[in-house]
Write a structure and sequence with these properties.
The chain is α+β, with helices and mostly antiparallel strands. A hairpin with a 6-residue loop joins β16 (371-379) and β17. Helices cover 39% and strands 30% of the residues. The strands form five sheets. A five-stranded mixed beta sheet has the order 3-2-1-4-8, with helices on both faces. Strands 14-15-17-16 form a four-stranded antiparallel beta sheet, with helices on one face. The chain has a three-stranded antiparallel beta sheet with strand order 5-7-6.
């Protein structure tokens, strides 16, 4: 996960390979998805100006210089030193004037050279077109990695016919006069022969599997370093812009939220002030009414205690009371409705096991001067005990 993230930060997800010839420029755009690489697009243009319309500016790429300025030669030698092999392949050139790429396969060596001023001018043109060359190779030596993906012994590119030994070594590179419509499978990646070179140079860069000695490692390190600086400032600039936009938006939203809360609090404060005035006025009225109610309740409490005390003292032993309700609720309580009481009324419930004693008790209650009337609401006659309910109306 960390490796993929690091690779994304460095290179992104798109990798471009370009073959620069004397007549045209052929290119491919590869997209890496986790552990897979897809061929997204291929293109052929006549000039560098047209190339910039095919790929995004600041896109990094692997460049294959394969024009008439590049010379390739195969030699046999037991030596492996690139300088010795160069002198043997091209004995009459000034080594300091040329970039060199060497592919050694046992005693067979492929040496490709190109003048430095030509390569440097090309790199400058690509840089001025805002295309970042991270890696460049000469001629067709990048095709040496083809056997790692396909076991075919012969391939045809846009300009060359390449043959390989059974061991997968590069055997022959020769010109072809007519192009052939041939597609090759590179581990599931179907590539037309005309685009094999840019595809393979990109895959070599992505996978790090190039068999040849780099043209100029220091030069490529400089190209990569310059690209990383540009990418860092691009990513950092974008991140900074997004960061400050987020901060600005957060501050704006925070200010709006704060302003709205302040306005809400002002409204609430005004409402509370009005409510406070109303509450003070209501409190004064309630206090007055509460004092009046307390006076009434104190009087009622005194009366109710007198009534209950009289009733309990007159109670014969054969009667057991279960409830005495002074001024009971006359109707069911409903929301937003005043509670109605059966004023000047006492409800008594209980149990009697002697009907004669019960009748005598009723007469005793009726003889009280404060009793207006005694009504038997319910009396269940039974052998042993009877449930009863009495309603006593109190005289004003």
């Amino acid at each position: 996960m960390l490796q993929r993230l690091t690779s994304y930060i460095k290179f992104g997800t798109h990798f471009c390979g370009v073959e620069h010839t004397s007549d045209h420029i052929q290119g491919v755009l590869l997209k890496r998805k986790k552990n897979e690489v897809d061929l997204e697009v291929t293109f052929e243009v006549k000039s560098l100006g047209q190339l910039t319309k095919k790929i995004q500016k600041s896109q990094h790429l692997s460049l294959v210089i394969n024009d008439r300025q590049v010379l390739e030669k195969k030699i046999e030698s037991t030596q492996t030193d690139p300088q010795i092999l160069l002198r043997k392949a091209f004995p009459n050139i000034n080594i300091n004037d040329f970039y060199v790429e060497v592919l050694s396969q046992g005693q067979d060596h492929w040496v490709a050279i190109c003048r430095k001023n030509h390569v440097d001018n090309l790199l400058k043109e690509y840089r001025e077109a805002r295309l970042n060359v991270l890696h460049f190779s000469l001629g067709n030596l990048a095709l040496s990695s083809f056997p790692k993906f396909n076991k075919a012994s012969e391939i045809l590119t846009s300009t060359k016919k390449i043959q390989f030994t059974p061991e997968g070594n590069l055997l022959v590179i020769e010109d072809v006069k007519e192009t052939v419509d041939q597609t090759y499978d590179l581990n599931g990646l179907n590539v037309h022969g005309d685009y094999l070179l840019p595809v393979l140079t990109s895959l070599n860069f992505i996978l790090g599997i190039s068999a040849s000695i780099p043209v100029d490692p220091k030069k490529e390190e400089q190209l990569v370093k310059e690209y990383f600086q540009l990418r860092f400032f691009k990513i950092f600039g974008t991140f900074s812009l997004v960061f400050f936009l987020v901060i600005l938006m957060t501050s704006f939203l925070g200010f709006q939220n704060y302003y709205k809360k302040v306005e809400d609090l002002k409204q609430v404060s005004q409402i509370n002030e009005n409510k406070k005035t109303t509450l003070l006025r209501l409190k004064e009225e309630v206090d007055q009414k509460q004092q009046l109610v307390e006076n009434i309740l104190n009087n009622i409490s005194s009366q109710s205690s007198f009534y209950i005390h009289t009733i309990v003292n007159s109670l014969p032993s054969s009667i057991l009371l279960s409830e005495i309700n002074y001024q009971p609720i006359s109707k069911k309580i409903k929301q937003d409705k005043a509670i109605e009481l059966a004023r000047q009324t006492i409800l008594i419930s209980g149990e009697s096991n002697n009907s004669d004693s019960f009748s005598q008790w009723i007469k005793t209650l009726e003889n009280n001067p404060w009793v207006k009337k005694v009504e038997i609401i319910n009396y269940g006659d039974a052998d042993h005990s009877s449930q009863f309910t009495l309603k006593i109306s109190i005289d004003d």
